[in-house]
Amino acid sequence: MSVHLLFSHKIRILFSIINHCHIFQLKLQPKNYLKYAIKPKKPPPMKAKYDLIGKGYNTTRKADPFLLDRLQYHLNPIHKGWYLDIGCGTGNYTSKLHTKETKFIGVDPSEKMLTEAQKNHPNIIWKKGTAEDIPIEDRSVEGVVGTLTLHHWNDLEKGFAELFRVMKNYTNMVFFTATPLQMKGYWLHHYFPKMMEASMQQMPSLEKITNAMNAAGFTDIFTERYFVQPDLKDHFLYIGKHKPTMYLDAAVRNGISSFSHLAHQDEVQQGLAQLENDVASGEIQNVIKKYENRNGDYLFLLSQKER
User: Fold this and answer.
1) Do residues 98 and 117 lie in contact, with contact meaning Cβ atoms separated by under 8 Å?
2) The pTM is what?
3) How many CB atoms lie within 10 A of CB 277?
4) What order of strands is seen across the sheet that includes strand 141-147?
5) Which residue in 172, 180, 194 sits closest to 298, CA to CA?
6) What CA–CA distance (Å, rounded) separates 20 from 228?
7) How do residues 138-152 score in pLDDT, each as one tens digit?
8) What is each CA distance from 69 to 74, 82, 96, 190, 281, in whole angstroms?
9) pLDDT-based confidence at residue 224 (cuts at 50, 70, 90)
C-alpha cells in the first residue's frame, strides 16, 4: 500500500461519522423462568461451547447489511489477495465479504461450525484453528476482520501477535465487539442480572484489548461506537434493545451464548415472565429509558499493521 493510500484511509476513518456510529482514537501506551425453562448446565469447555452454539446458529445469526458495510469500509480491501476472518463461525460475514478479488479464509475452532460453513459456501477456504494458533503463513493476508470473537480468545496478547505475524505490512484489521462498560447500559440487567454479570465478566475491557494490541505491534488504534438499530438482522445479545418481545422467542435465545450457556434457569424463567408482563403493561418503556446512555452498545475496533 502506498503512503498516499495509507494516509487516505486513515483520513477516511477519522472523518467517517454517521447516525449509527461515532469514532475515537485511542492513545494507550503498551503494558509489558416454566415455559421459558432451559436446562441448567455448567459452562462447557471452549471446544464444546463453540460446537453447541453451532446447532441451529444460522437460523438467527445472519450478516447484518449495515455492519457488513462498516466492516468492508474499515477493511478497505484495495488489494487483490487473501483476507482473514478470524473466529468466522458458520461464515455468515465471511461469505458476504468474499469476492473474486477479495478472497477470504475463515478460521474457527469449532468443527461443527466449519462443517456448516463448508456445506453452505464450498468456494471459500475454511481452516480449523484459534486466534492464538492461526494455520496461515507469515505475512500472507491483506487484512483481517473479526465479529464478536475477542471474548472467546484464551490469550489476547498471543492472538494479536499471531494476527500481526500473518498480516502483510500496511494492511488493516477491524473487529466488532462490545466492552463491559457498554454492556452495563443494556436494560437486560433489569431482568437477567446474573446472566449479564457473567456475560460482562467474559468480555475483555477496552484497555485490556488495546494493551494487547500495542504489545503485538499495533500502535494506532481507533474505535467507532455502534448503537443497535431497530432493523438489525444479526440476532446477537442486544438484538431486542428496541424490540423486547424478541427475547420471548426460544429460537432467538438459543442463538445467543449468554442465554444458552451463561444463564441460570430460575433467573431466565422469572426474568422472561416479568419482561412479558412489563411489555403488556407498558412498563418496559420506563425500564428502557432508565438505561439510555451514549457509550454505544458495541464498537468497531480498528488498527493497521504498519511494518
Assistant:
1) no
2) 0.84
3) 12
4) 21-26, 221-226, 298-305, 167-177, 141-147, 81-86, 102-108, 125-128
5) 180
6) 8
7) 999 999 999 999 999
8) 9, 19, 10, 32, 38
9) very high
